[in-house]
Amino acid sequence: MKTKIIATISLIALLFYSCNQDDLIVEGTQNQSELMSKKNVLKEKFGFALVNSLTESQILREMIKEEALRMFNKDYEVLVYSMLDRRLENGMTFEEIINSYADDEFTLQSLLDLEPTLTILVPELPMNSFSAEKWDAVNEIPAIAIRTNNTNEIPLITPESEIGMIPYDAIPGFPVLVIKNNERVTSNIENADYYNLKTRIVYDKDGIEFRFWSDSFDNKKNENYLQRSTRNIDQVLNEAYNIYEQQYPGLNGWQRDYVYYGIQPSNPDGPFKYDFQEHIRSFGMTGNAMNAYNKISDQTGDPRYNNNHRINTSHWTEGFYEFKVRTIINAKNGIGNELINGFTVSPSELFQLEYETYTTGWWFWKKTYYRLKNIYNKTILIDIPIINWDLDEYASSIKIEIEEVDLTTTTIITDTRTVKFATNFGISPSLGEKVKLGLKFGASLETTQTHTVQKTFTQGNDFLGEAIVNFADKVVLERKVSKFPLRIRWKTRDYTSGLGYCKFSVEPKRVQ
How far apart are CA 19 and CA 459, in angstroms? Predict the structure, then answer.
């Protein structure tokens, strides 16, 4: 059952072997160039074997759909390693049927040795044209797309085993699966820091293990991405706004003083309350929506340009966006912490996308495609917890960095900055416990220290910027009340990343 490739010109081979050498060289080494080429060729072979296996086996189509709908990592993705021993209607395993349709120079294990997080994505395509939910696995045999790292064009293998390239600005309107790597899980054979992860083991086989790099991508531990929380302002923040912005506007007091310590001008001392915790509550891209979209939809380091406008619209092969949130926290005892969180969001949640439809026959396959016509930024709720901000324990500022995840291999770098610590704490004779003494930094001067924190860095991710959040920053900036109908609208502070690609809000939220 070996594959017969029906293609007058192997465009994917042209891509892998005849492209500009600069596109292939990673970090300037020829060995890495050769390794990338080898991986791409093996993915092509896997693609041909997979499309023929899907044509042969209805059970395989139903199996992939079922696994995708589980959304084990909050996306419609299937980890290939987890499918190896699954049996089909002819008694063959997934691995056996793939190998049976491949040429003699390919085995599925040879690809997995190089790409252990190999994944099959069932993409959500525009206008409800195709998705895991809509896939008629009994009757629809999808084409196979291959996500590569050296072109914005998408190699596509049809159910008839023909191969061609989808242009950078075309999105399919027909059934298609995507072969890609998984950005949300990592394995012990590719990640030297694997055993420092505290996340759940997703899958293990013959000594090979997979974990999520963050619990935020584990669908068993967190709510599904669609179950966003409702934005609201706690009554305590309402009271803090009234005290410091209306009753004592000239004082320029700290709203968080009231939230965490119950402190106000008439009651300047108070113990720390664990009822609240800082959260990154909202997130959105900023500036020109198309530029923001292209920034996080990059498939390669070599995007196209049209009239000096960056064009890179092959996001559909990536699935949902993954964002890493790194919070740098400095403790008074000199220990610096790097708190890693993440969240996942679909393109349609983060942007309002408008498409135009067209059918064309000037490619290798006449089908319906979509092209992005207009795009607008949107703001979403994410509610990522950070810390219970006790100034007797933590510095008066924290640093938040955000990046869009494309790779999972990380290195360790250091982050050095000067931070302030409050010193106005003591034991209250009446309460018999430690309290914060006075508003702001109190009568005593704050102390300033230089701290160095080790943090992880992932080369290849899209760094969107960073911002400093201060304990003294106002949380609620404005309150507007309309009478007909009665409605209160709150304006809270947004932090814009230094690079200007995104914004986010940080607010105390009641946790008990």
Answer: 23
Token readout for 199 is: 């996340």
pLDDT tens digits, 384-437? 999 999 999 999 999 999 998 865 444 444 556 566 778 787 877 776 677 888
The sign of the dihedral angle between the CA atoms of 332, 337, 343, 347 is positive
The phi and psi torsions of 16 (rounded to 5 degrees) equal: -75, -30
What is the pairing mode between strands 185-187 and 208-212? antiparallel
Amino acid found at 66: E
| ω into 485 cis (within 30 of 0) | yes
Instruction: Please report, in angstroms and rounded to a whole number, the separation of the first and last CA atoms in the chain.
Output: 61
pLDDT digits (tens, 9 = 90+) for 168-221: 888 999 999 999 999 889 999 888 888 888 899 999 988 899 999 888 889 887
The torsion angles phi and psi of 288, rounded to 5 degrees, stand at -65, 120
Q: How far apart are CA 440 and CA 266, in angstroms?
A: 14
Radius of gyration of the CA atoms of the chain, in A: 26
Domain edges within the chain: 11-183, 235-510
Amino acid at 43: K
Q: Tokens 């410091």: give the residue.
A: 244
Q: Sort 276 into a burial class: Cβ within 10 Å, 0-12 / 13-18 / 19+.
A: buried
* Residue 234, helix vs strand vs coil: coil
Long-range contacts of 378-381 (CB under 8 A, 24+ apart): 378/284, 378/349, 378/350, 378/351, 378/352, 379/282, 379/283, 379/284, 379/503, 380/228, 380/282, 380/283, 380/284, 380/345, 380/349, 380/350, 381/228, 381/229, 381/230, 381/231, 381/281, 381/282
The model's pTM is: 0.76
Residue 211 CA: distances (Å) to CA of 70, 73, 108, 344, 422: 17, 10, 21, 17, 39
